[in-house]
Amino acid sequence: MSTMASNPPVPKPSQSLVPHAQTDTEIRERLATSTELGLSHKEATRRLEQYGPNSIQTIGSVRWYEVLWRQFTDILILILVAAGLVSFLVGEPSDAIAIFAIVLLNGVLGFVQDWKAERSLSALREMLAPRCHVIRDGDELEIDATNVVPGDLVQIETGDRVPADLRVTRCMNLELDESALTGESVSSQKSTDPIDADSELADRTNMAWMGTAATGGRGLGIVVAT
């Protein structure tokens, strides 16, 4: 009687692991990949179906007046507005003015925060790499960055944008501009050595973050999050 070959279990992405604190061997084993050959084409296709495309989900561009309108449609805000109207009707204009002032101030502050968040998200989308180079079955391929999956072996060279969060496994004078994330004006020199689990973002020199740009050198990294 013949038996059907079962697919190997698909590893989970990096929610539960701390990639910068692990060796590249541990990362490779955890994500069932190879630092030489990368994933197979078949496995990459399977993981793309499992995890979905490597992209920031969006419903569409949000206009400023839509963000402003949201600030005044929250149930608690509507209750405050109703309380203000009742105060006017019962002859307490000072209470009503105070309530409406709180509603207005809350709306303005909420709008400023939400609009900044929307603009930051738009800027991040523009930073994403449209194409990237990966190694699959030992061959270097240029693919859409949306098709990158956890476990992919990505090649980074000067001028490239990092398509997903990578654990650097090999580098030759690799430097990345991480100013948008860390505020540091000097490019970050990358290494392959494990870093303390509690280290700050700017100190995680064995990580290459999505959207950052290579300003020098070259390297390889395993995708740990998309």
From TrEMBL:
Membrane topology field: Multi-pass membrane protein
GO biological process: intracellular potassium ion homeostasis; intracellular sodium ion homeostasis; potassium ion import across plasma membrane; proton transmembrane transport; sodium ion export across plasma membrane
CC terms in the record's Gene Ontology section: plasma membrane
Regions that span the bilayer: 72-90, 96-115
Gene Ontology molecular function: any one: P-type sodium:potassium-exchanging transporter activity
Superkingdom of origin: Bacteria
Pfam families from the UniProt entry: Cation_ATPase_N, E1-E2_ATPase
Residues annotated as domain Cation-transporting P-type ATPase N-terminal: 18-92
Region Disordered, annotated ranges: 1-21
Annotated localization: Membrane
The entry's keywords: ATP-binding, Membrane, Nucleotide-binding, Transmembrane, Transmembrane helix
Predominant location: membrane
InterPro entries: ATPase_P-typ_cation-transptr_N, ATPase_P-typ_TM_dom_sf, ATPase_P-typ_transduc_dom_A_sf, ATPase_P-type_domA, Cation_transp_ATPase_P-type, P_typ_ATPase
PANTHER family: P-TYPE ATPASE (PTHR43294:SF20), SODIUM/POTASSIUM-TRANSPORTING ATPASE SUBUNIT ALPHA (PTHR43294)
Family: Belongs to the cation transport ATPase (P-type) (TC 3.A.3) family. Type IIA subfamily.
Name of this chain's protein: Cation-transporting P-type ATPase N-terminal domain-containing protein
Organism of derivation: Rhodopirellula bahusiensis
